[in-house]
């Protein structure tokens, strides 16, 4: 009797039908089990109802042969009406189920290896329990026998070694206690993150980076750090709890506990537990190489193909238990038709290691062979150099990675402290790429090293028996003997081509885009006049329009009026305070400016103005970047309002007055005799105050900020840049460079003409 | 007696020859048969400068002696050539200082109080106080500058310009009001090369944009063949017509001075000697200089060169009415610069030196480099250009992307915005000139800072229009590829490559003429 006949007129509830295995199962049931009705629990997502999601699912290529011409169904809707019943609902709160179910296949689950502990328990343990309770409720009054098929994982065996039998996992952990503790962690960790100690730490870390930009920017980063910390802690807690009890991670741990829940219900339902190993792309059905989304090995395969995986902490001889998804689905169908007795749950291992082992070394060789023949085409630099793995063992790979992480940290500390410049930014970008790779390696090594070094061997006698019991052409339709797979062929001809295909397509797009980006990089679009609304263009001065800084300009202003020895004295004093000043500048720009401006005490404002007009003007103009001036003038020509916002003192901006409609600068307070008091008449406009000024200005003058422009060079200008629709980072420092790249802002390099010299002081040694 | 200039034909005994190459020089082996034009050696200088000046002032040509023109209560204006002359700047005392002091002396004797001294810089940048001081000397500077009686001409100061009428060709003559309303205008010139002086002094040096645009445009300048020969230069014709109008309104007493070719002294004297005559000392200083320059960072190299001061001695001085004075002056200039060259060549070679009229105390940007090579040196001819029509011109200069934002703010914009659209002088003129000339920011910088007028880069580009029109190929040896390409030229790494590149139009074994200047020369091409 064929499976189709055995399962004829059965109603099968499938959970997780939108997942990888669920989808394949649905495909097989529609195609090869014509008499069976599928009941699918689908969670509404966003604006899509469960029914709509099912309709979407059926539009995928693999389902297309089931409806339309030459089939009994006119379209997807007709197919659904006849074969599928959708139950809207979520496994965290299982809805009432139809009361005529014959079989339940539970393949929904959290497939991530490192879920936060509470989520792992919710889906894998508590979710399973409530599903089972609902199933039980649905048969109340009917007394039906419902065959419950639970899809688990072979790795519920955890860190055990050797042959793993198709039997309950041997452990004495009480799932109720664990679930309760695990669920409580969420609140505990959340609470902990809000303690004064932790908050102080987050704030201090955030301020180290963002204090210059202002308190609000720092606060936003503090909160981001807290949330990030909570998420990380929840994952960490899960992993550690799992390891303390002998499992590799929270996923396998909760899956094992989930089996215990299922076993408790084995007295109510005939129960089968199916434990696939690592499920990868199909060998035959729906078509060779079919895979949905990225599973376990794909990110690593792709990373290797891109030359970004220098080594892996695997034992070359450890067996990687890969199974093709169609074998898994075949086994599930066969299991559905074989109902065990009550209280005697049956276990099925779907692995490949027992009879057709694939060692890590063979896998590596296969992938390497594939990429040698079909390298990724990454731009103009030719094929990627593929790393050669020596399998030095987990510890040395770990040491390598740790070394890399430490080196990166040091390099990063250096790069954020050295003077800015094109080269610094180039290094910063390279460092960021490096960092991404290191993070990737760290994540996958932590996740997978356990699996890659596993020394387990899953006994699969039950599955083999299932396969052998298949009759007629069921043997090919529902094949579940994994020994037939020819690994080199599977890896090189089936799996790798399939998983790299989308990446190759993406590469073409990316290449085109990068080419466009490279051509547009550093080239600002021409500005156009705005018809109905006023637009501003705000410019920072020091570092943006001309290379200068507050200390330098202070010296320009003060030295000309001093005589020789006084000059040396003033210079010496500044030099002595330089380290302190630099430290202050990194921390709080406002305070730094005040310290410098304090030194103007006693100077006559009129005299300062005079010095600027007579001596400094040419110096300032000589240092102006030509590109910057062109841009300002372009804005003016377009009718935009040009504004100079600077922390520099007002007299210094005098040479630039004709370029701007408005200049906002630091005003030196003067006494009744016109002498500077060393104070400012208002707080200096830095960091968030600039943003606030611009916002206020825009409100009052009816300016459209989304169409406005801002140009600045330093991290402290981040808030100002964020307020406008067209921010431009000009020769940015590393933190702003990173922020600008992340936000995809324009980055330009406005160079001060090479003809000006930093060592020439106007009125002192310049001609 | 000094030796006249001559044309050397390169043979296998000819050593490598000096080629000026921006802030540095090269030693180049030219193909056999290349003709190298050497300037005449320095003429014997005037023995007693003071005496010569007095003599010129007291015995002027076609004019009353200066003392007779000076009366108490009159308005006297002295105008002088600005910092663009001479090149390189001369050692102190500047010849203009000596002449101005002599004029002031006579004026004081005559009881003239109302004296103003104006730098005739037209649309050139203002001179800094220090630069003014270097030209007129400490004494004159101190007595006139603080009171505002020594100043730069401002071509954009509408209140202080005076429209004197139009020439018979309808050209406006508009000059400094002070000069126009003076009882006597004394012009003190330095006639470094043949294009200077004559009516060009006042009617260009003290003129406004309105007046200048009549001859500083692509049409006129393409037909100025060459600038060094005022009789064959449309620009000069226009200036001469303006001079006629001007002299009807203003009494001008023109003082023209000429200088010897004694430019390089001290350790770089070898630059003005003929290579095969270098003494051991010359060879040693050449090697030392070359090594130093090759290894010095750009800024130091710039410093070394900008500190060069030329020896320049006075070779002659003439005063009186403009035209006869200029005749005499040209005679002297020609004696110093003219070299007879037989026939044109397929290929002309020019080494562009570090300095041109518009980058004194500044850097030579790409546009100025082009102007220096293709405007000045190419035009250093009388009769015919050294290159045949549609021949090739090979220039030496690194052409770095380097602009002084202080002195040449409109140049960098011209380079980025104008040249990226077109390199054709006439197109550029029609499309962009007005916008740049009237731009308030450039005018502001011209008037208050030390910037060349917004329109000045256009004039540079018009300067080269004759060369652009005449030459089929222009190749820069060792030029920055990007900047050279932006200007519409090509760049080669070596002379051999450059010759290879132009071989499609001049053949495999073209005739070559190399202008070995500075020291200055005019090729009298027969």
TrEMBL record, chain A:
Domain spans labelled Fatty acyl-CoA reductase C-terminal: 436-496
InterPro entries, A to Z: FAR, FAR_C, FAR_NAD-bd, HAD-like_sf, HAD_hydro_SerB1, HAD_sf, NAD(P)-bd_dom_sf
Protein name, per record: HAD superfamily hydrolase (TIGR01490 family)
Lipid metabolism listed as a keyword: yes
A Pfam family hit: NAD_binding_4
Molecular function per GO: alcohol-forming very long-chain fatty acyl-CoA reductase activity; hydrolase activity
Domain Thioester reductase (TE) positions: 14-332
Family per similarity comment: Belongs to the fatty acyl-CoA reductase family.
GO biological process: long-chain fatty-acyl-CoA metabolic process; suberin biosynthetic process
Xref: PANTHER family: FATTY ACYL-COA REDUCTASE CG8306-RELATED (PTHR11011:SF45), MALE STERILITY PROTEIN 2-RELATED (PTHR11011)
Keyword line: Hydrolase, Lipid biosynthesis, Lipid metabolism
TrEMBL record, chain B:
Origin: domain of life: Bacteria
GO molecular function, one term: lactate racemase activity
Location of the LarA-like N-terminal domain: 37-227
Gene3D superfamilies, per the entry: 3.40.50.11440, 3.90.226.30
InterPro entries per record: LarA-like, LarA-like_C, LarA-like_N
Pfam families reported in the protein's UniProt record: Lar_N (PF09861)
PANTHER family assigned to the protein according to its UniProt record, in alphabetical order: LAR_N DOMAIN-CONTAINING PROTEIN (PTHR33171), LARA-LIKE N-TERMINAL DOMAIN-CONTAINING PROTEIN (PTHR33171:SF17)
Protein name (database record): DUF2088 domain-containing protein
């Amino acid at each position: 009797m064929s499976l189709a006949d055995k399962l004829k007129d059965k109603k099968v509830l499938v959970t997780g039908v939108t997942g990888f295995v669920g989808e394949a199962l649905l495909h097989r049931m529609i195609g090869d089990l014509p008499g069976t009705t599928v009941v699918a629990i689908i969670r509404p997502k966003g604006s899509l109802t469960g029914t709509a999601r099912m309709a979407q699912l059926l539009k995928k290529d693999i389902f297309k042969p089931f409806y339309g011409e030459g089939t009994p169904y006119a379209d997807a809707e007709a197919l659904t009406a006849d074969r599928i019943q959708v139950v809207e609902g979520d496994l965290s709160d299982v809805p009432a189920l139809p009361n005529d179910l014959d079989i339940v296949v539970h393949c929904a689950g959290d497939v991530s290896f490192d879920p936060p502990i509470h989520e792992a328990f919710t889906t894998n343990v508590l979710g399973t329990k409530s599903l089972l309770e609902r199933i039980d409720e649905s048969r109340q009054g009917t007394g039906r026998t419902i065959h419950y098929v639970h899809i688990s994982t072979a790795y519920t065996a955890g860190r055990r070694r050797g042959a793993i039998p198709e039997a309950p996992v041997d452990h004495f952990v009480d799932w109720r206690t664990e679930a309760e503790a695990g669920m409580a962690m969420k609140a505990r960790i959340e609470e902990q993150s809000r303690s004064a100690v932790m908050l102080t730490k987050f704030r201090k870390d955030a301020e180290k980076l963002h204090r210059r930009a202002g308190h609000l920017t720092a606060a936003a980063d503090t909160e981001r750090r807290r949330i990030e910390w909570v998420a990380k802690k929840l994952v960490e807690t899960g992993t550690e709890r799992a390891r303390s009890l002998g499992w590799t991670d929270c996923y396998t741990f909760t899956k094992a506990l989930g089996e215990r829940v299922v076993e408790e219900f084995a007295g109510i339902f005939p129960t089968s537990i199916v434990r696939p190993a690592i499920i990868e792309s199909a060998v035959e059905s729906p078509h060779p190489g079919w895979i949905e989304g990225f599973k376990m090995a794909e990110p690593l395969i792709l990373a290797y193909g891109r030359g970004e995986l220098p080594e892996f902490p695997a034992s070359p001889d450890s067996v990687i238990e890969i199974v093709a998804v169609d074998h898994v689905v075949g086994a599930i169908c066969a299991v559905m038709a074989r109902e065990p007795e009550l209280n005697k749950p049956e276990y099925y291992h779907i692995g490949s290691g027992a009879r057709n082992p694939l060692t890590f070394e063979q896998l590596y060789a296969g992938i390497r062979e594939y990429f040698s023949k079909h390298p990724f085409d990454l731009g103009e630099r030719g094929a990627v150099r593929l790393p050669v793995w020596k399998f030095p063992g987990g510890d040395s790979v770990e040491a390598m990675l740790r070394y890399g992480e430490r080196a990166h940290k040091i390099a990063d500390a250096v790069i954020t402290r050295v003077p800015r410049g094109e080269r610094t930014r180039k290094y910063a970008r390279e460092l960021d790429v490096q960092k991404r790779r290191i993070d990737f390696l760290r994540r996958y090594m932590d996740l997978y090293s356990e699996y890659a070094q596993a020394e387990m061997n899953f006994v699969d006698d039950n599955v083999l028996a299932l396969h052998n019991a298949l009759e007629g052409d069921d043997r090919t339709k529902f094949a579940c003997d994994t020994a037939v797979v020819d690994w080199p062929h599977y890896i090189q001809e089936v799996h790798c081509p399939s998983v790299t295909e989308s990446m190759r397509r993406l590469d073409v797009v990316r290449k085109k885009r990068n080419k466009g980006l490279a051509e547009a990089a550093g080239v600002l679009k021409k500005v156009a006049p705005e018809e109905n609304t006023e637009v501003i263009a705000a410019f920072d001065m020091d570092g943006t329009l001309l290379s200068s800084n507050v200390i330098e300009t202070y010296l320009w202003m003060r030295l000309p009026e001093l005589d020789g020895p006084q000059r040396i004295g003033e210079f010496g004093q500044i030099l002595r305070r330089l380290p302190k000043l630099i430290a202050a500048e990194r921390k709080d720009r406002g305070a730094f400016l005040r310290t410098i401006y304090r030194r103007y005490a006693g100077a006559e404002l009129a005299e300062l103005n005079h010095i600027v007009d007579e001596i400094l003007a040419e110096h300032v103009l000589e240092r102006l970047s030509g590109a910057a001036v062109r841009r300002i003038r372009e804005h003016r020509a377009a009718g935009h309002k040009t504004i100079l916002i600077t922390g520099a003192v007002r007299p210094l901006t005098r040479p630039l007055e004709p370029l701007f409609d408005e200049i906002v600068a630091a005003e030196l307070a003067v006494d009744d005799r016109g002498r500077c008091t060393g104070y400012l008449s208002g707080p200096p406009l830095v960091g968030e105050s600039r943003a606030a000024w611009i916002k206020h200005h825009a409100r009052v003058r009816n300016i459209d900020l989304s169409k406005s422009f801002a140009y600045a060079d330093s991290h402290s200008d981040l808030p100002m840049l964020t307020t406008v629709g067209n921010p431009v980072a000009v020769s940015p420092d590393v933190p702003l460079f990173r922020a600008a790249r992340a936000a995809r802002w324009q980055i330009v390099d406005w160079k001060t003409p090479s003809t000006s010299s930093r060592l020439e002081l106007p009125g002192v040694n310049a001609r | 007696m000094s030796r006249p200039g001559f044309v050397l034909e390169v043979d296998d005994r000819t050593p490598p020859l000096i080629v000026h190459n921006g802030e540095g020089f090269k030693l180049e082996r030219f193909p056999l048969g290349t003709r190298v034009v050497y300037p005449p050696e320095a003429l014997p200088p005037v023995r007693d400068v003071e005496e010569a000046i007095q003599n010129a002032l007291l015995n002027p040509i076609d004019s009353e002696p200066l003392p007779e023109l000076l009366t108490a209560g009159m308005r006297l204006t002295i105008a002088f050539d600005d910092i663009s002359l001479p090149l390189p700047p001369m050692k102190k005392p500047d010849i203009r200082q000596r002449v101005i002091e002599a004029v002031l002396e006579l004026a004081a004797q005559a009881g003239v109080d109302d004296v103003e001294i104006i730098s005739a810089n037209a649309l050139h940048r203002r001179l800094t106080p220090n630069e003014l001081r270097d030209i007129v000397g400490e004494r004159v500077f101190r007595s006139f500058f603080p009171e505002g009686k020594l100043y730069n001409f401002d071509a954009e100061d509408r209140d202080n310009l005076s429209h004197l009428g139009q020439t018979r060709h309808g050209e406006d003559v508009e000059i400094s009001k002070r000069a126009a309303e003076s009882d006597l205008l004394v012009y003190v010139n330095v006639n470094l090369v043949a294009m200077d002086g004559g009516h060009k002094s006042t009617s260009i040096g003290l003129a406004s944009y309105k007046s200048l645009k009549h001859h500083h445009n692509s049409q006129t300048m393409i037909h100025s063949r060459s600038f060094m020969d005022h009789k064959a230069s449309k620009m000069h014709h226009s200036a001469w017509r303006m001079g006629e109008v001007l002299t009807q309104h203003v009494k001008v007493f023109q003082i023209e001075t000429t200088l010897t070719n004694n430019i390089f002294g001290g350790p770089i004297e070898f630059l003005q000697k003929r290579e095969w005559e270098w003494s051991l000392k010359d060879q040693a200083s050449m090697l030392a200089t070359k090594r130093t320059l090759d290894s010095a960072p750009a800024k130091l190299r710039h410093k070394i060169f900008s500190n060069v001061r030329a020896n320049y001695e006075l070779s002659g001085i003439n005063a009186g009415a403009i035209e006869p004075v200029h005749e005499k002056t040209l005679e002297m200039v020609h004696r110093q610069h003219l070299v007879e060259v037989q026939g044109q060549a397929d290929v002309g070679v020019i080494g562009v030196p570090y300095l041109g009229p518009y980058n004194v105390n500044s850097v030579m940007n790409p546009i100025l480099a082009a102007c220096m090579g293709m405007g000045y040196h190419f035009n250093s001819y009388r009769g015919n250009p050294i290159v045949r029509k549609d021949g090739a011109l090979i220039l030496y200069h690194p052409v770095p992307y380097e602009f002084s934002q202080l002195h040449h703010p409109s140049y960098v914009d011209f380079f980025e915005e104008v040249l990226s659209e077109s390199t054709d002088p006439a197109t550029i003129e029609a499309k962009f000139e007005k916008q740049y000339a009237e731009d308030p920011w450039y005018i502001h910088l011209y008037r208050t800072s030390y910037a060349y007028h917004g329109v000045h880069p256009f004039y540079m580009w018009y300067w080269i229009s004759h060369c652009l029109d005449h030459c089929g190929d222009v190749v820069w040896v060792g030029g920055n590829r990007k900047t050279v390409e932006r200007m519409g030229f090509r760049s080669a790494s070596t002379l051999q490559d450059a010759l290879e590149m132009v071989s499609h139009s001049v053949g495999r074994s073209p005739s070559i003429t190399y202008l070995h200047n500075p020291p200055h020369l005019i090729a009298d091409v027969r």
